[in-house]
Each structure stands twice: as C-alpha cells, then as structure tokens.
C-alpha cells in the first residue's frame, strides 16, 4: 500500500516535523482529515493529507535557493514534470525589508512555488506539493460546511489583517491557530494552490484585508499588475515585483 507510514499517522492524527538538518531549518506539518467541501456549487471530496502549520517562512525557502545553481534570468522554457529549477536573482529585495527569518515568503510566482515543492520532495523523499483549492478551503474551514461565520474578535486573535497588521506582513505562527492547528490561513499573505481546472490560484486574503472580506472563498488569479514595476523583458517567471501579498504553504501526501 502506498504511503503506509504517513497514512497511519494521519489516522492517528499525529503532527510531524520535517527537519532539514543540512540547512538547520524545519517545517511543522499537521494532519487534515478527509471530508467534503463545496466550491462554486460543486461538492469535492478531500482525502486526508498533511499541511504546513504555517505559511512557508523565508529561512526554509533560502535553503532551496542555496542548494543549487539558480536558473538563467530570462529562462522561459517549460520544465519537464520531474525538473527542479531555482529562481534567478531578483533585481529587488524579495522580502522588501519587512523581515526575513520567521516571516512568510512573498513576491513568488506559481512556478517558483511549484519548484520549491519539487525540491523539498527530492530532499525528503516524501511527496510535497501545493494544495488543491478544495484542500485549502477545507482546511481553512476546519472541515465545517455551510455559511462561514467568524467574529471580528476571533479573527483578530487568529489572523494578520487590516485591523492589527500595520504596514506589512507579520511573523508566521504568532497568532492563535485554527482548530486544525493551522496558523495565518485567512490572512497575512495569500497562498498558491491549484484550482479545480488545474490552474494556479491564490487562496485567502492578506494583511490589508478588512475583517468582513476575510473568508475561505477568497480567490485571486495572476494579473499583469502583480509585475507592473518589473523592468525586465520578458517579465520574470520567478518573482512578482508587486506581489507583496503572494506566498505559499505546502502539503504532504507521504513517501514518494
């Protein structure tokens, strides 16, 4: 049976820590049970999986960057399914000076997020990937169906949003987690996922959102203004010059 060790852990609902000892960093993964979620009138079945307890922090992403040679600045090739490429050097400071260690990765394209997952899979021998939008929403809803309800008081305890964030992102894992042990799901930064048709989609709000607008159904698709100030021709396939609200969170299925 595929993925036996981690599936057993899922049934026991035991979190685990993915330690990347070579780089002195780690990721905390928590189990998300299976169930059903309705998106745009369509009911989708979600199988059990593990999800990063926080948005991906810079120090883990840095391990990916230093682990190999970066790609050519204007590389526009389509990568094979098993290829691992790394971002070229950004012409601007990717973290915008808002904070690095303990802060969420920002300004990354969906290609960069996908390549990070491939790299993490290669070094851990487990299957890491981006969540589907159904998995993401199921986790954000804590498995609950029906109309979304959360008081602003509860939201303020759990999320970085317009009411408490100031002028930039907050450190991951500093607010209260949701019922599944996930931090910052609805706010801080949006998180790359894969929509029902297989396209990249950004799920969730960010630190600029008002309380009333922060729901599990928030979706955004790439738009040219996410790279408006990028002077490169063609635009970078790795970095979003104006994607200060774009981050990621990983999920894990089990052994490769």
Task: Give a brief rundown of this model.
With 256 residues, this protein is α+β, with helices and mostly antiparallel strands. The protein has 5 helices and 11 strands.
Tag the structure with descriptive keywords.
256 residues, alpha+beta, paralog of FGE (formylglycine-generating enzyme), five-stranded antiparallel sheet, 11 strands, 19% helix, globular, disordered N terminus
How would you describe this structure to a colleague?
19% of the residues lie in helices and 19% in strands. The chain is built from five helices and eleven strands. It is globular, with a radius of gyration of 17 Å. Residues 1-11 have low confidence and may be disordered.
How does CATH name the architecture? Alpha-Beta Complex
Question: Order of helices and strands, N to C?
Answer: HEEEEEHHEHHEEEEE
CATH superfamily grouping: paralog of FGE (formylglycine-generating enzyme)
Strand order of the largest sheet: 1-2-5-11-6
Kindly name the structural category.
Answer: alpha+beta
As a percent range, the share of helical residues equals: 10-25%
What's the CATH C level?
A: Alpha Beta
């Amino acid at each position: 049976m595929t993925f036996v060790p981690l599936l057993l852990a899922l049934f026991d609902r035991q979190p685990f820590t993915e330690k990347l000892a070579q780089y002195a960093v780690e990721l905390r993964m928590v189990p998300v049970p299976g169930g059903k979620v309705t998106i745009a009138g369509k009911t989708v079945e979600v199988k059990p999986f593990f999800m990063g307890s926080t948005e991906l922090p810079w120090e883990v992403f840095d391990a990916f960057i230093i682990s190999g040679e970066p790609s050519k600045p204007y590389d526009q090739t389509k990568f094979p399914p098993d290829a691992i490429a790394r971002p070229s050097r950004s012409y601007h400071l990717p973290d915008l000076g808002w904070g690095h260690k303990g802060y969420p990765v920002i300004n990354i394209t969906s290609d960069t997020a996908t390549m990070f997952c491939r790299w993490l899979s290669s070094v851990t021998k487990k299957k890491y990937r981006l969540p589907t939008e159904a998995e993401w929403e199921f986790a954000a809803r804590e498995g609950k169906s029906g109309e979304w309800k959360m008081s602003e008081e509860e939201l303020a305890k759990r999320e970085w949003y317009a009411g408490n964030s100031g002028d930039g992102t907050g450190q991951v894992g500093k607010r209260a987690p949701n019922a599944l042990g996930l931090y910052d799901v609805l706010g801080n930064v949006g998180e790359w996922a894969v929509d029902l048709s297989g396209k990249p989609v950004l799920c969730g709000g960010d630190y600029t959102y008002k309380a009333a607008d922060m729901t599990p159904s928030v979706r955004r698709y790439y738009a040219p203004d996410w790279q408006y100030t990028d002077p490169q021709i063609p635009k970078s396939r790795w970095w979003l010059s104006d994607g200060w609200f774009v981050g990621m969170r990983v999920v894990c299925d089990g052994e490769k």
